[in-house]
Structures are given as structure tokens and as C-alpha cells.
Design a protein that fits this description.
single chain, 136 residues, mainly alpha, 2 domains, 6 helices
């Protein structure tokens, strides 16, 4: 009888141990799942803020839909129209502008930085013979 009680006690202790291990494993697994979803929550908050900003912009547009200023702006932007006396300037795309601009190495290579005082530069420009007399 003592032998049976000791075996039952041992089985109970092992069963409790197994149940505790299962509970710990489950809680750790749940913790990792929740931690992984924290990024999703932050992403959802960011998306919500973006949508809120978009909603505010759309409400502002909706309020100004019938105004003369809005109609004029749309005529300028979409149709390329202008009022009397205005000039429309159409620029090429940014890539074309960059290809037409001089390269940095070309711009920097042709000029030296002047180290003389400004008054000496003026004398050299307007009175070169005096500049030779003063000394270079």
C-alpha cells in the first residue's frame, strides 16, 4: 500500500511538472506572437495617420469645390489656361534639366579662387599698370 501511494505521488508530481511545462511553453509562444504583432499595430497606426491626413485634405478640397478660386486653379493646372497678362512657363522634366546643366568638374576646373584683397582685385581690373607698380 505504501508502495502504491509513493507511485501515485510520483505520478502526480510528474503530471504537475508536465502541465507546468505546457503552460510555460504556451505562454512563451503567445508572448512571441504578441510581440510579432506589435509591428503590425505600429504599421496600422501609421497607415491610420496617413489616411486621416488624406481625409482632411479631401475635406478641404470638397469645401472649396464650388469656389471661383478652385475653378481657376483647376483651369490653370489641368488645362494650362492663364488670365490676361500672365505668362505660362513650361519646364522640361528634371532629368532633361540635369542633362543640360554643366557637370561639376567642368564648372570647378576653369576658375581659381582669388586670394588677393578685394581692393587689389579692383586695381588689377581697372588699373593694371598701377597693379604692376604696386607689385603682384
Amino acid at each position: 500500500m505504501d508502495n502504491l501511494k509513493s507511485i501515485l505521488g510520483l505520478l502526480k508530481a510528474r503530471a504537475v511538472f508536465v502541465v507546468l511545462i505546457l503552460i510555460m511553453t504556451s505562454s512563451i509562444h503567445t508572448g512571441f506572437k504578441l510581440k510579432g504583432r506589435g509591428g503590425a499595430i505600429e504599421e496600422a497606426r501609421t497607415r491610420l495617420e496617413e489616411e486621416e491626413t488624406k481625409r482632411i485634405e479631401l475635406e478641404a478640397i470638397r469645401e472649396s469645390l464650388g469656389s471661383v478660386k478652385f475653378i481657376e486653379q483647376q483651369a490653370r493646372d489641368k488645362l494650362g489656361l492663364a488670365q490676361e497678362g500672365e505668362v505660362i512657363v513650361v519646364l522640361p522634366p528634371e532629368e532633361v534639366l540635369r542633362s543640360l546643366a554643366p557637370k561639376e568638374e567642368f564648372v570647378d576646373s576653369g576658375f581659381e579662387q582669388e586670394t588677393r584683397p578685394i581692393w587689389r582685385q579692383w586695381v588689377r581690373l581697372f588699373l593694371p599698370e598701377v597693379d604692376l607698380w604696386i607689385g603682384a
